[in-house]
Amino acid sequence: MSSTGVGHKTSAEPPAFPAHVKYSPPRRTIPRNCESRRLSRDEGETKGIAMASSPQQQGQAQGGGQGSGSSWSPEQFWSLLDKADRRFARVRDLPLVGRQEPDAFAKAFRIYTQLWRMQQEHRHRLLEAGLRRWQVGEIAARIAHLYYTQYQRTADTALLSEAFVFYHAVLDRAYFHDAGDHVAPGKHLRFLARFLLVALLLARRAITVPRVTADIRSLLDESKKALQVEAEYKEWKHVVQEIGRFLRADSAFMNMRPLRYSYAFDPPPDTLPTVPPTIKKRGLGLSDAILCSYYHNEVKFTDITIDVFRMLQCLEWEPCGSFALNNGYNAHDESGQNHPNLLKDLRDAALPPNPLKTILYRPSATHFLTVLATKCEELPPNSMMLIYLSAAGEVGSSGFGPEASEKIANNFSKFDISNTNRTGSRVDDEPGIWLGCRETEGSNCIYPCDLIPFTRRSLFLVIDSSLSYAFKAVKAELLIDWSLVHASLGSGNLTVRSKSIHGAERGETAAMLLSPVSRSSAGFGGDSTRQSGSQFTMFLTAPLQAFCFLIGNNGMDIDRDAYNKAEELLSLSLNEWATALVSSSTLHPVWVEVLGDPLLRRLLLRFIFYRATHSLFKPTNHMAEFLPSCEPPLPESVDAESMLSQSCIMRIASFFGAVNQFSFAELTTWPDADTEESAVCP
Which residue of 118, 265, 361, 664 sits 20 to 30 Å from the alpha carbon of 671, by its own alpha carbon? Predict the structure, then answer.
């Protein structure tokens, strides 16, 4: 779109803060880490975030802007602009963890509401007083950033759509195009990077994402000399490389359907099979989540890795809500502020609220545990918290593994009880998950036993690591009866008992989904985490795409109709597993609660699909290191090689023509397979 003078208001002009957006009370913040700082170093802009005001506060602000009348003067605008900068400065140092809303957040958002309305109502007089296009663009960009950060705090995807509207308007109207030295290249690049992240989260892959990516590359090339002077060129060159890797991993095939819970592909919650009324149910629901992923040189953009990016969306409801049910999902829709159906991107009021999510990238162990403790303390009653950890792990020098208890017991006779100078360290013999660089060792390592104190609240753990087994069987502290220690040492009969998180909880049974120790070599190479993300996480968030990659199909030959048919078959299989679970008399109470929450339920059923797929897949058949596990155990009716699981996997494998890649039982009755559809993929 061609640029238009700021004095001429067109339909492309960003709207005032819309009245149709209903803000829920703020409930969280997302800690910001060092990697995101390059996206928030604008001159005059701080690292803080502003809080959306309540509808009442917005009404007061709008009324204040309109009531100025003929007494208004341009000096009031410039004064208000300076005041807005100071509000950002006050927000910068506020604590970012907790549900309590600091007043400074509401004040910062309210002042930008006044500022934006003032420049709309008095545009011509402000032009005469020296207002420039880049200044209007900067205000709009900050409003977009406020909306985005408010989305981070509340998980309300309507705010994400509003951020897109303002970002899109700044880019479409080229507010920064002729800014000259007023908008430094670094500031312009940070604006584009923020917009790109919002567009990715909204799956605007057809037009917006390629356009913004191309703008970032071209601006970086044009500004090479200026950025070299500011020692930023190499940093932004690295960002461009990160974007390229991220877009290759988040391909068009991965976006064939929304990762969020969508009525176009997922069953409405009120149609899901439920446990019998005779089974006691507390009605727990997913309220909060901590998402943490770190691998060396993994695919990421800013502080969001590809695995966290997928899991974040998987824990949300598709913004279009019932619109998708009536009109179908269009992955290529690029609605901007001129589109008459803009409201379709706003969340359906009938949908449940999204759980609050805290993203941690390379946190120290103390920071991780501090955030976890804060969220557990503020977790609402009858709520469950999800903890997602995707990171590499390494056994300590003493080699803790499945046989660790036996090794410790055999070597305990060497323990000199008279020696008070203990040199042994838990880090030396207990496995941990590395959440950052390894130079600092324990400060960046989370041990399974670190989570046990937090099982006083209901936890749902998703552990994606080569040391996931450690969370299933955690090494216990030595349990010594000191009154018998001399006799024990004398007889050499002192034993060491091991325990697991399941059974060692401090109040609530923890539900755990644990990845395999090794990754499959078929479809996902050993370096897959660095190229396309974790296989385990992909099966939990995009199971059909993960299945295709596993059987060697990259999805290039699958059209929309074939994909939708495959989704229907997968949905049928998941529903059959769900029916088997709710009808089982041996279903653990914690899984009863999980099945009551649609988002957690979907994760559990996809886990069953993943487990059955790898158990029957010939390259990994009967190989325990390639199979995931869960605690507490699930009923035998949904075991990986049960007749139900085999029929479900064969149904999908037949559709893709991949039955010969799986080991199915020879004597059984299989569901009817559509032979015409089974040749979709060779």
Answer: 265
Given pLDDT bands bounded at 50, 70 and 90, which one contains residue 490?
A: very low
Half-sphere exposure of 493 (CA within 13 A, CB side): 6
pTM of the model: 0.81
The alpha-carbon radius of gyration of the chain (Å, integer) is 27
> How far from the centroid of its chain's Cα atoms is residue 104's Cα?
27
Instruction: Say what the alpha-carbon torsion angle 50, 312, 34, 532 is, to the nearest 10 degrees.
Output: -150
Identify which of 330, 2, 38 has the alpha carbon closest to the alpha carbon of residue 197: 38
- Tens digits of residue pLDDT in 202-249: 999 889 999 999 999 999 998 888 877 777 888 999 999 999 999 999
Q: Give the containing element (helix H, strand E) for 164.
A: helix 157-172
Q: Residue 168 carries which side chain, given as an amino acid letter?
A: H
Mean predicted confidence (pLDDT) in 354-381: 92
Q: Which of 434, 432, 422, 361 is nearest to 397 (CA)?
A: 432
DSSP H or E stretch at residue 211: helix 208-222
Chain-centroid distance, C-alpha 608: 21
pLDDT tens-digit map of 256-268: 999 999 988 899 8
Judged by phi (left if over 0) then psi (alpha if -120 to 50, else beta), residue 180 lies in left
CA distance 611 to 74: 66
Those residues with Cβ within 8 angstroms of residue 340's Cβ, 6 or more apart along the chain or in another chain: none
Q: Under CATH, to which class is 269-320+352-395+430-474+503-661 assigned? A: alpha beta
Q: Where in the chain is the domain with CATH 3.40.50?
A: 269-320+352-395+430-474+503-661
Three state DSSP letters for 526-581: CCHHHHCCCHHHHHHHCHHHHHHHHCCCCCCCCCHHHHHHHHHHHHHHHHHHHHHH
Contacts of 123 by beta carbon, 8 Å cutoff, 6+ apart: 6, 7, 9, 131
Q: Please state, in angstroms and rounded to a whole number, the distance separating the CA atoms of residues 314 and 546.
A: 14
